[in-house]
C-alpha cells in the first residue's frame, strides 16, 4: 500500500513557529489564522488595512445620510438653514472613492514594509494589554491634534488654500461623507498626523502593535466623520467632555472658513485665540434659540433654504424637507 503524500504546510505557518497557540484568545487565533490563510504578510496587512478603512469610513458615514433625510432631526442641525442634496452626497462619494483607490490604497499597501522597518509588530501574537493600548492611543490623539492644528492652519495660507485646501471647503455646511473630501496633497499632509504619531512612538520605543494602530485609526475616522456630520445632539461628546471639539466646533470652521483649526480637542484654538468668532457666533445662536423657545416656536423657525455649498435650495427640495 502506497504511503500517503506528506501534507504541505500552509504558506504563513512559518510566521508562528514556536507560538503557544493554546495560550491565545479567540481574537488572537483569528488574527493568526488570517495571516496563515493569506500567506504573504505584506498582502495580509495591506488587504486588512484597506478593508478596515473602507468598512469603518462608509459604515460610520451612512448613518449620517439617513439622519440628513429625517426632517425630525433638523432641530439638531448646526447650520439649520442648509442641507446636503442627494446630488452633492453622490458627488462626494464618487470623489472619496476615487481618492481612496488612487491615493490611499498605494499608501496602505506600503504600510507593512514601513511597519517592519520601524519595528512595529504586525502579524505577531499575543496582543498587547488593554492598558498599554489605551495609553498609546491617548498619546496619538494628543500628537495628531497638535499636528493637525498647525498643518491645517498652514493650509489656510493663501497659495496653499487656493491650490489645495479649497477643495475641502467646497461644502460650507459639511456632512459625514465629506470628512475625506479633499485634494490628494491634503490627504497626504493631514494624514501624516494620523500615522505620524504611531510611527514616531514606535521609532522611539520599539513597542507598538498594529492592532493598536487599527483601533486608533478607527477612532480617528469616527472623530473626523462625526466632526463633519453637521449635527450637535444632547449626547454629543463635547456636552460631557468640555475640551472635546466635535461637530459643534468644526462645523463653524467650514461656515466661517477660518478659526477652529483643531480636530479632537479645543485647547490649541483656545490658547491661540483662533476660536473667538466661534464663541461669539454660538452665543448669538444660543440667544436665538432661547427667544424662539420663549415665544413657543420650534427650532429651527424656518425651513432649510440652502444646500451644503450655500447655493439656494430648489423649491421642490425645500418642499420635501418640510414634509
Mean pLDDT: 91
- Structural category is mainly alpha
The end-to-end span amounts to: 80 Å
Q: Which series of helices and strands comes N to C?
A: HHHHHHHHHHHH
Subcellular location: Membrane
Keywords: Membrane, Transmembrane, Transmembrane helix
Domain Fatty acid hydroxylase: 139-274
Region (Disordered): 289-323
Annotation keywords:
single chain, 323 residues, mainly alpha, disordered N terminus, disordered C terminus, transmembrane helix, membrane
Walk me through what this model shows:
- This protein has helices spanning 26-38, 41-68, 86-109, 111-118, 130-154, 158-163, 184-205, 210-227, 246-256, 267-272, 276-294, 315-321.
- It has one domain.
- The protein is 58% helix and 0% strand.
- It is built from twelve helices and no strands.
- The model is unreliable at 3-9 and 318-323 (pLDDT under 50).
- The longest helix is centred in the N-terminal third of the chain and has 28 residues, at 41-68.
- It has 323 residues and is mostly helical.
Short description:
InterPro entries: Fatty_acid_hydroxylase, Sterol_Desaturase_Related. With 323 residues, the chain is mainly α. It is built from 12 helices and no strands.
Amino acid at each position: 500500500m502506497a504511503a500517503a503524500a506528506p501534507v504541505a504546510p500552509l504558506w504563513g505557518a512559518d510566521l508562528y513557529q514556536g507560538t503557544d497557540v493554546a495560550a491565545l484568545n479567540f481574537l488572537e487565533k483569528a488574527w493568526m489564522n488570517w495571516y496563515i490563510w493569506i500567506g504573504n504578510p505584506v498582502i495580509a496587512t495591506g488587504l486588512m488595512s484597506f478593508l478596515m478603512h473602507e468598512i469603518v469610513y462608509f459604515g460610520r458615514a451612512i448613518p449620517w445620510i439617513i439622519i440628513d433625510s429625517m426632517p425630525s432631526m433638523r432641530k439638531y442641525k448646526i447650520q439649520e438653514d442648509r442641507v446636503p442634496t442627494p446630488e452633492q452626497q453622490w458627488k462626494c462619494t464618487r470623489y472619496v472613492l476615487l481618492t481612496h483607490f488612487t491615493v490611499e490604497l498605494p499608501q496602505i499597501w506600503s504600510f507593512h514594509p514601513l511597519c517592519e522597518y520601524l519595528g512595529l509588530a504586525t502579524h505577531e501574537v499575543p496582543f498587547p494589554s488593554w492598558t498599554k493600548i489605551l495609553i498609546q492611543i491617548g498619546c496619538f490623539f494628543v500628537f495628531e491634534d497638535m499636528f493637525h492644528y498647525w498643518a491645517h492652519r498652514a493650509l489656510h495660507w493663501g497659495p496653499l488654500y487656493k491650490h489645495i485646501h479649497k477643495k475641502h471647503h467646497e461644502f460650507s455646511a459639511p456632512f459625514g461623507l465629506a470628512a475625506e473630501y479633499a485634494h490628494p496633497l491634503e490627504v497626504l499632509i493631514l494624514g501624516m498626523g494620523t500615522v505620524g504619531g504611531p510611527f514616531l512612538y514606535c521609532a522611539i520605543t520599539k513597542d507598538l502593535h498594529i492592532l493598536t494602530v487599527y483601533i486608533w485609526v478607527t477612532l480617528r475616522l469616527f472623530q473626523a466623520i462625526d466632526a463633519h456630520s453637521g449635527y450637535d445632539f444632547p449626547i454629543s461628546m463635547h456636552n460631557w467632555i468640555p475640551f472635546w471639539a466635535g461637530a459643534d466646533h468644526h462645523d463653524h470652521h467650514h461656515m466661517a472658513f477660518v478659526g477652529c483649526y483643531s480636530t479632537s480637542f479645543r485647547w490649541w484654538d483656545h490658547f491661540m485665540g483662533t476660536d473667538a468668532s466661534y464663541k461669539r457666533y454660538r452665543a448669538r445662536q444660543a440667544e436665538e434659540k432661547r427667544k424662539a423657545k420663549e415665544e413657543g416656536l420650534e427650532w429651527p423657525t424656518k425651513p432649510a433654504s440652502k444646500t451644503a455649498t450655500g447655493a439656494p435650495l430648489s423649491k421642490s427640495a425645500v418642499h420635501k424637507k418640510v414634509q
